Amino acid sequence: MSDVPSFPYDIWWEEREVRSAAKLTRDDARPFLALARKVPVKTTVVPMRLDEANAALATLRAGELTGAAVLVP
Questions:
Q1: Are 71 and 50 within 8 A, CB to CB?
Q2: pTM for this structure?
């Protein structure tokens, strides 16, 4: 894979963080998932309707969101 070019990330709609995704197989994930069962992992998901996307972004920008917002139809 080629390197990702450098640029100012703050121009991306004021995103607060940049995340990457890794390609892996199910066999790669099995040891991780076995470990995840033993470690107390707590996730927080805030479902928001798709027609409330602008309100979801405003909540995120204001720092009022704990967890991950998920837009649902």
A1: yes
A2: 0.44
